[in-house]
Structure formats: structure tokens, C-alpha cells
Design brief:
It contains seven helices and nine strands. Helix 4 links the parallel strand 5 and strand 6. It starts with a strand and ends with a strand. It is 39% helix and 30% strand. The chain has 203 residues and is an alpha/beta fold.
Length: 203
Amino acid sequence: MKEARIDITQSVCQDPLNKVKSVLEQLREQKISVSKIEILGDSELALESVENFLINSGYIFETSGNGEQFAILVKGKEEIKIEALEEKPIEFEDKILLFRDDRIGEGELGKKLADGFLSQLTLSHKLPKEIIFLNRGVLLCADSRRNANILKDLQNLEQKGVKLLLCRTCLEALRVKESVAVGKISNAQEIMDRLLSSSVISL
């Protein structure tokens, strides 16, 4: 029987959590049987996010090493945990997340942080009631190969009941209005009303 090894070391992988998700999903969808799944990495942030994902998804695993060099041996899934997780209701906080850029911070690191943040948010049972996208933040909702993982996470959040509002003027100025793949195109009045009516967390 085959063994699966997922290499998420920084030299070969820029988005460790989504790579792990993608490989596990592929194994499941294609019904590929493997004797062992091993995840190798060298980042403390990657270790924390992957372990949280595996726990929330009901996987049984063992971790050896530390954030600088680690290996996670995935042994299987615990169906009882998965059922219990699915039955737990989602709680909507009276908060709005505000994205004013297509990343959190600057450069490629900022892009990775935005990817990781939204991916982690999909696993949470406490969600904001709305996410508003202004300025370059609207680019996160535009269909592009670079945004594939983020769009999947945003679509997941929308299906769970989180409202996504996009600034029409920003979309038109950046010429991406026709490529919007998720969310509702809104106007200044509606967005202003929302921002003034709830607690806002700006990212």
C-alpha cells in the first residue's frame, strides 16, 4: 500500500495549511488508500495551523519534533468527533471584519497571513456577522488563479451565513467588477450604515 508524504517546508510550500487540506481532500475524493500519511514542516505557524485543522476535522495524529523541524503522522479519522463537531451550532458575533487591502500587512508575508486567517476562520464556530471589503480588499473576492484558495474559504463563510459586502466604487476603479466571484456588490450608504451599527475589526 502507498504512503503519502506532504512536504510543507518553507522552501517548497508557501501555503502549508491549504496544501494539507488539498492533499487530504484529494485522497478522500479519489478514494486512494494509503498505509501512512506524514506531514513534514519547519515553521511554528504552520505546525499550529495544521494541528488545529486536524483536530477540528476529527483526525487522529501524532506530532514529533518542534516548530523548527516537525513531522505529523496522521493515523486516521475519529468519526464520533466529526459528528459532534458538525452538530455544534455556529455562533455569530455582533462584529464586522473590514478588509481594506488584499493582504494583512505588506508583501508576500501579508498575502500568506490573509490566506491563513481566512482559512482558519472557516474552522471556527464563532464567526463575524459580516465581512466588508473596501479599496484593494475587494480583490480578495475577484476570480483569479492566485485567489483560488481564498475564494473557496470566502464561499464557505458565505454558505455558513456570513454576509460579504463589496464596495462598488472600488470594484469599478480597479476594473474587477465583472470578475466578482463571491459576495454582494454594495454602495457607500449601505456600507457606512453597517460600519456605524456594529463593532468593527479592521485588518
